[in-house]
Design goal:
71% of the residues lie in helices and 0% in strands. The protein is globular and about 35 Å long. The protein contains three helices and no strands. The protein is mainly alpha-helical. Helix 1 runs parallel beside helix 3.
Length: 76
């Protein structure tokens, strides 16, 4: 249980710090393709850091992290 709480807490911190590193487009905000690529790469890095397979048992968890990053990038 403690490991799961720590993992979630760590991911929240990483997500908040990663949103500031989102790709910056030239004029009209981030393009959806840039945000999709960035969110995917970042989610895969988080999963690797956690030692988990993003397509494994916790797929929905990793998809939710991807969604947060993607939407944050588009709105940022």
């Amino acid at each position: 249980m403690k490991r799961k709480v720590f993992s979630v807490f760590t991911c929240v911190l990483l997500i908040s710090s990663s949103l500031s590193m989102a790709p910056i487009a030239e004029d009209d905000g981030n393009s959806p393709s840039q945000c999709a690529q960035w969110a995917r790469e970042t989610t895969l890095q988080f999963a690797a850091a956690a030692g988990e397979d993003p397509n494994g048992e916790h797929l929905e968890y990793w998809l939710s992290i991807y969604r947060v990053l993607y939407i944050g990038c588009l709105n940022g």
